[in-house]
Amino acid sequence: MAQINENYSKLQASYLFSDIAKRVNRFAEENPDQPIIKMGIGDVTEPLPEVCRKAIHDAVDEMGTRTGFHGYGPEQGYAFLREAIAENDYSPRGCEIKPSEIFVSDGSKCDSGNIQEIFSESAKVAIPDPVYPVYVDTNVMGGRTGQNVNGRYEGLVYLESTPDNGYVPSPPEEAVDLIYLCFPNNPTGACATREQLQEWVDYARRNKAIILYDAAYVAFIRDPEVPHSIYEIGGARECAIEFRSFSKNAGFTGTRCAFTVVPEELFAYDSAGEKVSINKLWNRRHTTKFNGVSYPVQRGAAAIYSPEGKKEVKTLTDFYMENAAIIHKTMTELGFSCVGGTNAPYVWIKIDGSSWDFFDELLHKTGIVCTPGAGFGTCGEGHFRLSAFNTRENVEKAMTLIKEHFGK
Ligand code: MLT
Questions:
Q1: What separation, in Å, do the N-terminal and C-terminal C-alpha atoms of the chain show?
Q2: Where does the Aminotransferase class I/classII large domain start and stop, copy by copy (predicted)?
Q3: What pLDDT score was predicted for residue 302?
Q4: How far is the CA of 42 from the centre of ligand 1 (A)?
C-alpha cells in the first residue's frame, strides 16, 4: 500500500497564492460584470525587453542549424551566462564570485524551495515572520517541523519583523542551523543595512549556521547605501548562499531563469563531524535533478548584461518603482501607515483588524486584489501588501477606487 509523505498533511490546505486565485475566480464567476485589478501576486505585466526577445529569436534560429544546434547543456548553466553574472552583478560591487559558484536554474522559488533538501532533517530552521511562504512550506515537507499550532509550526524559530524593529529582525538568542533572509524583503519591502547584515553574518559564523539569502528584488534598490548582495558583507562567503532571479528585473516570470550562488568556502558537517563542501553537494543535487535552462532562454538572460540590456532593465524597474511611489503616496495620504515601495516593488500597509476580512472588503467593494498579510505569517496580521507590478492605467484606476472607498 503506497503511503504518502505524512509531512504533507501538516501543510495548510493550499499554497497562499493558489488560495487567493481560487477566491478571486469565485468572486469573478459570481460578479461577471465587475472589473478586477490584480495587485496581489507579484507578477510582472510589461513586455520582455527588446534585447532579450532578439537574443531569444537569434538563439532559436541558431538551434535550427546543424552547427548552432544545442542539445543538453551544462546543468549549471552555460559559461557565457555564468561569466556575465559574475562580471556584472558581483564584480562592480566588490564581490568576487567565480562562475563555478553560480548555478543557473528555472526560478528562485524552486531554488529557495529545493535547497533545504541537502541539509539534515534535524536542522533547526529560522524564518522571518512575515515570510515568503515557500521557505516554510518546503521545510514542512522536508520534515523539519511539527504541527501547525495557531498559525505557527512547532520546531521553527520565527524571526518577528514588526513595526518596532522596522521589519528587520535581529539574530535570535538561541543557535539555529539554517536562516532564511530576504532583502529587499518580500512581503514588507524593508531593506537591511550593512550593520544589520553584518550582525547576521557574525551570528552565522559563530554558530556554524548557513544563511539562505533571497535577493530576488535587488534590481529595485535605489538607495546606494543599501547592500545589494550578502557577499558585500565581510565573512559571508563562509556562511551564505544567495538566490537571484531574472523574473522581476527583466520580466522573466513566464520565461523562467534564475541563479543561485554557492561559494567554495561554504561547508556544512556530516554525522562524523567532517566538513562537506556545499558547492559540491548542491552541484550533485542540481546535476541529478535538473537538466538546465534552455539555450534560448539563457541567451535571453545574458542579453540583459549588454549596455542596451542594462538600459532596458533600468527603464523597466523604474517604471514599476514609479507605480510603487504612486501607491505609497496615495495610501499615505489616506492616513495608512506604509513601508516598502522605495527600494522594493511591494508596499506593506498597516490596518486595524483581520487582513483576510480586509482582503474580502477590498475585493467586494472595489474589485482590487491585494495579498492579506496573515497569509505571510502571524506577524503579517494587521497588514496587507500591494504589488507595484501592474500597468500604469491599472495602478491609477486602483488608487482612484481606493480613494473613493476609503477617503473621508
Ligand atoms: C509574490 O507575489 O510574493 C511573488 O510573486 C511570488 C513569487 O515570486 O513566487
A1: 62
A2: 36-400
A3: 98
A4: 5
pTM above 0.95, yes or no: yes
Q: Which CATH architecture has domain 13-47+309-406?
A: Alpha-Beta Complex (3.90)
For residue 215, report the distance from its CA to the centre of ligand 1, in Å: 13
CA 342–ligand 1 middle distance (angstroms)? 18
How is the chain split into domains, by residue range? Answer: 13-47+309-406, 52-307
Task: Determine the average pLDDT of the residues in 370-386.
Answer: 97
Q: At what angle do helices 392-406 and 307-333 cross, to 10 degrees?
A: 10
Ligand 1 probe mutation, 15, 16, 17, most atoms within 8 A of CB: 17
Ligand 1 centroid to Cα of residue 1, in Å, is 37
| ipTM field | 0.92
| Pocket (CB within 6 angstroms of ligand 1) | 41-43, 109, 132, 186
What is the spatial distance between Cα 54 and Cα 396, in angstroms, rounded to a whole number? 32
Distance from C-alpha of 370 to C-alpha of 368, rounded to nearest angstrom: 6
Q: Which residues have a Cβ under 8 Å from the Cβ of 81 and sit 6 or more positions away?
A: 104, 259, 298, 301, 302
In the chain, DSSP finds a helix count (H) and a strand count (E) of: 11, 17
Q: How far is CA 134 from the centre of its chain?
A: 9
Decide if 13-47+309-406 and 52-307 have a common fold: no
The verdict on domain 52-307 having CATH code 3.40.50.880 is: no
